[in-house]
Write a structure and sequence with these properties.
Number of helices: 2
Helix content: 10-25%
Order of helices and strands: EEEEHHEE
Shape: globular
Strand order of the largest sheet: 2-3-5-6
Distance between the termini: 30 Å
CATH superfamily: GTP cyclohydrolase I, C-terminal domain/NADPH-dependent 7-cyano-7-deazaguanine reductase, N-terminal domain
Number of strands: 6
CATH class: Alpha Beta
CATH architecture: 2-Layer Sandwich
């Protein structure tokens, strides 16, 4: 079995052109679980340079702020020019949303299809992450 360490750098510079924005809650104190799906997600694989195709689902319970949906759409679309592995991408989305809206609970699920026999599902959940909001910078 051959093991390789891919040292190609991940690049998130494309996200600078699509900043996330917040919106104030119109119903203060409501404990709604908000679920947003992005079914046509793409990120460039550092291994092959080809797009990895998948979907991202964001579910959160807002404290005081919501993520503005148009900015989230542009942010997700910007990943088409990002080079990163699926795991890093899902963690980056989780961290960016956690730092932006400080939700009561947050879950980000990424599902990536493969050309082979293994599909990839990554789940990052604030309930499972004791260091929520403290994920190291992936530049």
């Amino acid at each position: 079995m051959a093991v390789t360490n891919d040292t190609r750098a991940c690049s998130y510079k494309a996200l600078e052109k699509a900043p996330l924005c917040v919106a104030r809650r119109s119903v203060p104190g409501a404990q709604n679980r908000i679920v947003l799906s992005y079914p046509n997600f793409q990120v460039l694989s550092p291994s092959s340079g080809y797009p990895d195709l998948g979907s991202i689902e964001v579910a959160y319970t807002a404290a005081h702020q919501l993520v503005e949906q148009e900015s989230l759409d542009a942010y997700m679309a910007a990943f088409r020019d990002v080079t990163a592995y699926g795991e890093d991408t899902v963690n980056r989305i989780f961290r960016d949303l956690e730092n932006l809206i400080h939700p009561i609970a947050l879950q980000v699920v990424g599902e990536f299809s493969s050309d082979g026999d293994i599909d990839l599902r990554i789940v990052v959940d604030s309930d499972d992450n004791p260091q929520q909001g403290k994920i190291e910078e992936i530049s």
